[in-house]
Amino acid sequence: MKTQEYKQLLIAKADELRQTSVSKDEIAIERNPEVFDEIQRTVEREMALTALSRNWKVTSQVREALERIEEDTYGICVDCEEPIGERRLKAIPWASRCIRCQENADRMVETFEMPEAA
């Protein structure tokens, strides 16, 4: 696949992410006299915040991938500077690392995450 085709995929993804924004009403904190209603609202708010965070992260990654296209560094791993596999780029056009380096980065994140309280 050519770089311009990836650019079109990335632009389409950016447009999709813009259209799936979370509204203020979804994350507003409201008090409800019914305990179960308040619990349900809290769960819905947490889900909306998770979606907002995920969308922000992917939007940032898509923007960075578009910048790499402009800088002519797209498809090159940011860590080892080896080419990122075509299959990986087809699956995740905003990928900035090859599989090996991404797995290493994921392990590092897992190592430094704080265990949840029991």
Explain what the structure shows.
- This protein is mainly alpha-helical.
- It has one domain (3-112): Up-down Bundle (Four Helix Bundle (Hemerythrin (Met), subunit A)).
- The chain contains five helices and no strands.
- The longest helix has 36 residues, at 35-70.
- It is elongated and about 60 Å long.
Secondary structure layout plus pairing:
Layout: H1 3-19, H2 24-27, H3 35-70, H4 86-91, H5 99-112
Helix pairs in contact: 1-3
Taking the alpha carbons of the first and last residues, their distance comes to 48 Å
Please tally the helical runs, counting DSSP H or I stretches of 4 or more residues: 5
Roughly how much helix do the residues carry, as a percent range? 55-70%
User: Could you say how many structural domains there are in total?
Assistant: 1
The CATH class is identified as Mainly Alpha
| Overall pLDDT score | 85
Structural class: mainly alpha
Q: What is the name of the CATH superfamily?
A: DksA, coiled-coil domain
Contiguous low-pLDDT stretches (5 residues minimum) are none
Q: Secondary-structure element sequence?
A: HHHHH
CATH architecture: Up-down Bundle
**Rg measurement, Å:** 19 Å
Bulk shape? elongated
The profile of the biggest β sheet is: none
Number of strands: 0
Beta-strand level of the residues, as a percent range?
Answer: under 5%
The fold-level CATH name is Four Helix Bundle (Hemerythrin (Met), subunit A)
In short:
With 118 residues, the chain is mainly alpha-helical. It is built from 5 helices and no strands. It is elongated and about 60 Å long.
